[in-house]
Give the backbone structure.
Amino acid sequence: MAGEREHGYARYRLDGCRCYICGFARSEYDENRSKAITAGTWQPWVDAEPVRIHLRHLQSCAMGLRTIAAQAGVARRSLQAILSGRSDRGSGPQERVRPDLAAAVLAVEPVLENLAPSTPVSPVGTRRRVQALVAMGWPQQHLAEYLAMRPGNFSMMLNREHVLVGRVLQVRAMYDALWRVDPGEAGATAAGVTRARRHAAERGWPPVGAWDDDTIDDPDAFPDWTGRCGTEEGYQAHYVLGIPYCGPCRSAHSAAKRRQRLARRSSLAVTPVGARNAMVPLPKSA
């Protein structure tokens, strides 16, 4: 058991190791504890509920306890004790935990890099990256070869409801490597580049410049074709640049037209009153 735990304070206390590293960790712990007690900041325990809530959130994001424990640098059984208690001791879920354990667990985030490669996730970002590269002129066959995929499997990937984390990370790496590279200079034929761009244009696939790093994976984000999409100015930019109108710009233009109609109706409802008053004929003199 001692061989499973890294040398440090925990191994000194729990495994009885008295090596230099473990002894130094014990001395350092005692010194910090004494300083904290003197300063009135000693807090040996904290509420376990926030940690428990965070653990459940991580589990809902397809992270297992083993993965969470590895990321936090704590024992898996410590997390199990927080969630459901210790069956060997007949105890329920922990009510308090050490501050350092709480901080370590709360620091774990459900980012893709922390998930198992076989975890299914949303395909939104993967699909948008591939579509942007095709709009740039990259033939799908070249992209499939880059990922070591068969063309048929590559096409199916774009239509699936979920994509595995391992594939998502591969597509991200491909996108980062190719989005600045001219496909023609990388071996794609002129005809292949033209076909890819036409294929993307016919389907309304947004180009690379329509996405930012903080929007491309967001299911609620929309591509910014003009730099002002979602506004009346963006609608006008579509017209000037000859780009097909996007949904947000159509909505913004419709809203602007409604405001104009309401303004005209309001103006017509007010102006005739003054006009009628001005046009009332004066009574004739007797």
